[in-house]
Amino acid sequence: MVDTITAERLSALQDGDDDYALVDTRPREDYEAWHVSGAVNYPYNPDDEPDEEDVAELRDLLDGHDRVVTICAKGISSHDFAELLAERGVADEVTVVDDGMEGWSRVYDVARVPLDADDVVVSQVQRRAKGCLGYVVGD
After folding, report:
1. Residue 80 and residue 86: Cα distance in Å, rounded?
2. Domains of the chain
3. What is a single Pfam family found in this protein's UniProt entry (predicted)?
4. Quick check: 47 and 84 in contact, CB under 8 A?
């Protein structure tokens, strides 16, 4: 059995000093169009059973990391992939991002903008997945 984490928890992992490998299991074209910073791509098809050569390639890709986090479009194929990693003993700890990239697209960072005025509040909202910025102004 593999554990799951939220996209928000992945965001916290990225901001921390945790040692882990992030593997994006989507097709290469999808990965190249948009991916989580620091992720490596290993296109995974649940219908294809990896052989020993594939497992050796995976070990090289993980570069000695004992902790692996997997992500895909919706958290489905990456879950299958995570189970495979656990079964084959490729990593000591394997985790899946719930809702995959869909969940990641809903992660926002909010920072309050310092102002001299006490009657106005301005917050900057950044969509972590795309880097889009927005502002919320209130009184």
Report:
1. 10
2. 3-104 (3.40.250.10), 108-138 (no CATH)
3. Rhodanese
4. no
On whether the CB atoms of residues 86 and 2 are closer than 8 A, the answer is yes
Do residues 44 and 82 make contact, with C-beta atoms less than 8 angstroms apart?
Answer: no
3-class SS shares of the chain: helix, strand, coil, % to 5: 30, 30, 40
Give tens-digit pLDDT for 94-126.
999 999 999 999 988 888 889 888 888 888 877
The Cα–Cα gap between 128 and 139 comes to 26
pTM attached to this predicted model: 0.84
Helices within the chain (DSSP H only):
7-15, 28-33, 52-62, 77-87, 100-104
| pLDDT (tens digit per residue) in 48-60 | 888 888 888 888 8
The answer on pLDDT for 17 being more than 90 is no
**What is the distance between the alpha carbons of residues 88 and 110, in angstroms, rounded to a whole number?**
40
**Would you state the torsion angle of the CA atoms of residues 52, 45, 94, 89, taken in this order, to the nearest 10 degrees?**
-20
